[in-house]
Amino acid sequence: MPGDLKDGRIVIVGASLAGLRAAEALREEGFTGSLTVVGDEPYAPYDRPPLSKQVLLGQATADTTDLPMRMNPDAEWRLGVRATGVDLLAKQVLLEDGESLPYDRLLITTGTRARPWPDPDEAALEGVFTLRTREDGAGLAERLAAQPERVLVIGAGFTGSEIASACRELGVDVTVAERGPAPLVGALGGTLSKLAAVMQRNHGVDLRTGVTVTALKGNGSFTGAELSDGSRVDADVCVVALGAVRNVEWLADSGLAAGPRGVACDAGCRAFNMYGIVTDDVFVAGDVSRFPHPLFGYQMLSLEHWGNAVEQAEVAAHNMVNPGPLQRPHLSIPTFWSTQFGLNIKSVGVPTYSDHVVIAQGSLEARRLAMVYGYQGRVTAAVTVDMAKALDYYRHLIETAAPFPPPPGAQDRAIAADITIPSEVPDPSVLSHGPTVALTGHLPDRRLAVV
């Protein structure tokens, strides 16, 4: 009966942004039953974006990044304890301390963790960091405040680029090593990534592209690294920014569709089991989820974005306590933002789902522009640099599957649009940073038959 959905036991695994917003939304939706939130870190949910920005610049400390609660969700918080499995038949979450938590409905919001440096001995050198947790942020901020001689950043995705930007703002020399042809190329494609490379070099970054780091050197403490081109970088701090790993290992024996790309779910956030059958009592939200999107060919999307975690958590919570006909789909358009080297970069849609781009407003030379991405003749994404007000117009074009190149509308040009050019979306395997929005079916230009 519909009434029963407002009662019972709900367990949320993942004391994350998505976990907190879902807990609040469950109560706002009228859920009156017992609510338990499990988190492997000892802290209440906190915000991660400031860790690569304000915290590194000394404008905030890592312990002041707690997420504000919109309301007290009246939950039992089980913090500092890791979930080790789910028994779908018995409807129990298994915990590291041997306890098991019974549930009527389960929400998985375990998110991602930083991809570690592959050599554990080298990763353990003093002065080698990843940046994901509060401890990471506090430790790295302390090292940067002490003005090291040089910092080596491995990986030029958003996190790596923001760290490099913070180093230059603090007056610290920084070398960035990226396997791909330019910073941010995995997220933004070839044209805009060229602007990112120019901006880094103009701000004094020693940017090395097309190279990999082959070894981290040091005797107890990090002293430098060897690169694939035979060169050596001497540095006393190293930040490994090689992207994220989805926290799904604890689900390995659960029978859910969990893998390296996350936990697959339908548009209503209901998790699939390993046979592709949708469950009606296990839901998933945030960075750990993969969900189909009609605007992008019904491919499964994996997103590592703040806004998506919030919106998906609210849809999942709504669907957990409402019967089928009242359930809603999670169909929001991906958006993200980044501030680095004095530029405000904002994106809407999926730039990697494209075959051509056009600069619709502004110019690369002016470093103020709106770039629109298209796939097979329709608009699929837009990225603005210091022109965020234009984004709403382009979001509308994406939502309505408007033709590409876009008609004159938001354009500050007399002609319809400039010449379209290939979007140069690289194969993710040639990058060290990986995209923050991934279509996990096929890339448009690589239709591979998999037997």
TrEMBL record:
<keyword id="KW-0560">Oxidoreductase</keyword>
<dbReference type="InterPro" id="IPR050446">
    <property type="entry name" value="FAD-oxidoreductase/Apoptosis"/>
</dbReference>
<dbReference type="InterPro" id="IPR023753">
    <property type="entry name" value="FAD/NAD-binding_dom"/>
</dbReference>
<dbReference type="InterPro" id="IPR016156">
    <property type="entry name" value="FAD/NAD-linked_Rdtase_dimer_sf"/>
</dbReference>
<dbReference type="Pfam" id="PF07992">
    <property type="entry name" value="Pyr_redox_2"/>
</dbReference>
<keyword id="KW-0285">Flavoprotein</keyword>
<dbReference type="InterPro" id="IPR028202">
    <property type="entry name" value="Reductase_C"/>
</dbReference>
<feature type="domain" description="Reductase C-terminal">
    <location>
        <begin position="336"/>
        <end position="406"/>
    </location>
</feature>
<feature type="domain" description="FAD/NAD(P)-binding">
    <location>
        <begin position="9"/>
        <end position="313"/>
    </location>
</feature>
<protein>
    <submittedName>
        <fullName>FAD-dependent oxidoreductase</fullName>
    </submittedName>
</protein>
<dbReference type="Pfam" id="PF14759">
    <property type="entry name" value="Reductase_C"/>
</dbReference>
<keyword id="KW-0274">FAD</keyword>
<dbReference type="InterPro" id="IPR036188">
    <property type="entry name" value="FAD/NAD-bd_sf"/>
</dbReference>
